[in-house]
């Protein structure tokens, strides 16, 4: 449960934060990033205020961050030392349209970034797959927590795999990455927009809205809901989203204390893999209308193996590439960049024009 606080993380067009104590009339509908504080927060000033979205998964990630901070720093283990502040983003508010139709980047991060920059929060916890390839000026992301399983889970009440679904079966997914890969391999299936948090999607599935859906296994595991998976898709069957399964934590670039706290939690293997994949994404200038997938990992020899994919939403065109090299920041960033340029050249300029 949360209780509204007498403040709001304001949209850049709204001016200064205002008190919510007295209701106001709305002249027109305006998207505001409502801020809430978890019930039970202490009255004393917290040492760290964590900003997060309010979905069960986002809160699970914020709680994981809080527990890791408490374990690493004794002063943060005291009651009330860490406060969790919930911020609604545009992606949380606009639920009746596909993400691609809402437009813009940072649909799940923009309002949280604004709260960070205006001092409402001290650190921001993000699913890295939601973070644009650029960071707002004045912020830095010095920490990735250890990456969870990157695979997608297939969830269905009537079949054990995509291959078992009869022609015409409807798959619910808001991800063009999943849609394109499904239709490339199973063109007889149909994919429809399917938004909402994990619990909402499972409820829609059980209600018969669709025959099956795909969800990130990482999210199911963090919610202790992995038992809902009918089967797991290998990365050969379904290449994951850029940075899938990784949590990123940002702070202001001039906040040395927060950077010190976050650096102590950083998992370097994850940070390097995410950097490689995001460089690939940056070269392709991917947006919500561009199906892109990538996966970088440390192989059995200790080197980096990378796979990248660029596709058309209908699955009619799929371009893939692979790379391998040393597991170091410079080499992995160069690897991601080179792979991106390769697929960009293969697809040609007309490919991207067709996605606008």
TrEMBL record:
It is found in: Plastid, Chloroplast. Its cofactor is dipyrromethane. GO terms for biological process: chlorophyll biosynthetic process; protoporphyrinogen IX biosynthetic process. PROSITE patterns: PORPHOBILINOGEN_DEAM (PS00533). GO terms for molecular function: hydroxymethylbilane synthase activity. It is an enzyme of class 2 (transferase). Pathway: Porphyrin-containing compound metabolism; protoporphyrin-IX biosynthesis; coproporphyrinogen-III from 5-aminolevulinate: step 2/4; Porphyrin-containing compound metabolism; chlorophyll biosynthesis. InterPro entries: HemC (IPR000860), Porphobilin_deaminase_cofac_BS (IPR022419), Porphobilin_deaminase_N (IPR022417), Porphobilinogen_deaminase_C (IPR022418), Porphobilinogen_deaminase_C_sf (IPR036803). Residues 272-344 form the Porphobilinogen deaminase C-terminal domain. Its main location: plastid. Residues 48-259 form the Porphobilinogen deaminase N-terminal domain. The keyword Chaperone does not apply. Its EC number is 2.5.1.61. Keywords: Chlorophyll biosynthesis, Chloroplast, Plastid, Porphyrin biosynthesis, Transferase. Tetrapolymerization of the monopyrrole PBG into the hydroxymethylbilane pre-uroporphyrinogen in several discrete steps. Belongs to the HMBS family. This is Porphobilinogen deaminase, chloroplastic. It comes from Digitaria exilis.
